[in-house]
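Deliverable D4.2, example record:
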Amino acid sequence: MKIKIIPLCFLAYFFAHGVEQPNIVLIMADDMGYSDLGCYGGEIRTPNLDSLAENGIRYTQAYNTSKCWTTRISLLTGLYHHRSDRNFENTALIGEILRPAGYRTWWSGKHHASFNPYDRGFDHFSGFLGGAINFWNPGNRARMGEDEPGWKAVYSWAFDDKVVNPYNPSKEFFATDTFTDWSLNWLNEDEGSAKPFFLFLSYNAPHWPLHAHPEDIAKYDGIYDEGYEAIRRSRYQRQLQVGLFEEKTAPLSEPEHELWNSLSKKERDKEALRMEIHAAMVDRMDQNIGRLVKKLEELEKLKNTLILFLVDNGASHERPKRGYKNENAKWGSVGSFEAIGQSWANAVNSPFKKWKVQGMEGGICTPMIAHWPNGIKLSKNSISRSSCHLIDLVPTFMELAGDKSLYPQNLPELDGVSLVPTFSGKKLKRKDPLFFQYGSWQVIRQNQWKLVQRKKEPWQLYDLSNDRTEVTDLSLQFPEKVKVMKRKWTEMAKEVGTVVSK
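Output generated by the structure prediction step:
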């Protein structure tokens, strides 16, 4: 394993010209589909994220790790998740890196690990340490006048140095709103500070259970009555119209969902309602991002704040059988526990194949938006087709922090590269292919070529420059390329410490 001490005197253009360190806001959604946002082809109302995209950059080939907790390791450390574990051992978190550079460091929302981020470089942390919660009541008992909370998994919560279990909030609690409230409180408390800040706003929406405000659900009444394929195709057509894809090089993948007409009227109504609630959850998240942007404008900090939005993995196919639910509870309410399932996951990941925990593009490709008026040198509404990965975010933030940012010695060399060149339309300086492995999937991407395998099945080879949606397997036509890329995957797997599932 390579070890490196990196004082990181990257000194990009804007620092050479005396521009101050930017604030950084990193926003992550949970289990959201690739095409859910309006600016990525969706019918869901997301005007605030659409505005950030219109005045910034949309990335079409940004990658995650296909799974919640592995994504968070890579996101916060700049390393492939295989180099660490669920406690983030043998790593430096971004808070530990940026705080010595003069940044205030805050984290609100989901963590999905057992340690308290307050002990790992964050001035403030408020959130839960588990993977999924009841959005209305994450506690262990019903509140007066309410149903028992659906799902009912009870995790530890941390509020700076205080860890509580269970956390039983008041009736005013709704996770998406509350996580934003906490973030706004920190901004208000430090309003007069001249120090830059790093905020990680880690939403758990729209991860199951499907919970949303009734008024948000009502906005989507009837929208999804046409079914899976109609939504998938309409999203694809909008993606073509706005220039995210070209039909010649990114044909719509084959459907992987149930036939809508094979369902009874009652089943179709339930399926449509699932998607109405999912849409409402994304809608509510966008409303809250709008609150955050408005606050940054009021504080006159928006122009020098880099806002990055992305998703931890593809939409989830899961419909968990475990967990409590009140069969009589209204869907979307505190007592309910539902999920969208595989058919809707296929639709909302349009135009790609597969979903969460899969190695195809629908599992590992995330929408990503960058907005920074003072730092992005491209025209508005730009689209970047650079292939990038979550491992690139820590190097990016370190470059923006300048030469005051220190990466601790005796730790693995960062796997990612800075995305700053993409802010001015330049190419990334990546020497190694992108490496993926989770569960039974193995993937390597080198330039336009992607090699992918599930379990011990034959390797599949795709030319993503001509086949972005992985329709045509070229492995039999290019056996030598398969051999070379497979060998490189094996080398990288050994180097990062991968244990492949059998």
